[in-house]
Amino acid sequence: MKKSYSYLLFFFIVLASSCSLNYLQSENSEDSIPEFCFKNARYTKYESNKQNVSLSAEQMEQYKSDNAVFAKNASFETFDSEGKEDTSGSCQLISANTKKEIYTLFGDIQLNLPKQDMQISADSLNFNKKTEQLTSGMSSEVRLTKKDVVMKGYGFSASGVSKSFSFIDAVSGTINTQEAQNEE
Q1: 88: closest CA among 113, 56, 121, 122?
Q2: What's the rounded Cα separation, in Å, for the pair 21 and 76?
């Protein structure tokens, strides 16, 4: 019986010594901890000595490892090359990849595009600055108001290049027309 215990003890010693797990090894902290964290932040970006973007947020975090920036309860404005407002809006969360210029907006999104006389409301939108494409997911409803037209639907896509937009699924809306009335 002593011989079997010695084999069993030897087996457990070999098994324990051959284990290569390091329980003290931790995840790379640069990936999970922001490089910068700001409360009640205001960010302004300039290109060619002209204001290009203005962003205010309750909290803003920047991560070094993946060019990620997050803004909570944010409001923003973008400006054209002449310094005129191009877009203004607000949302609960912005996730930005500054290297790829891809921006994802979440929660109670309100966009105002004065040059197109258009307002957009949604819960989730993606914007690719390089291709100037604004899109929603297939299951995310988008509401668009343009002059007397109100539309809502799913699978929204808009092009900043062609100034066109489309819905893929379940589109509904109203068009208000009024005849001009002369009161004399």
Answers
A1: 113
A2: 48
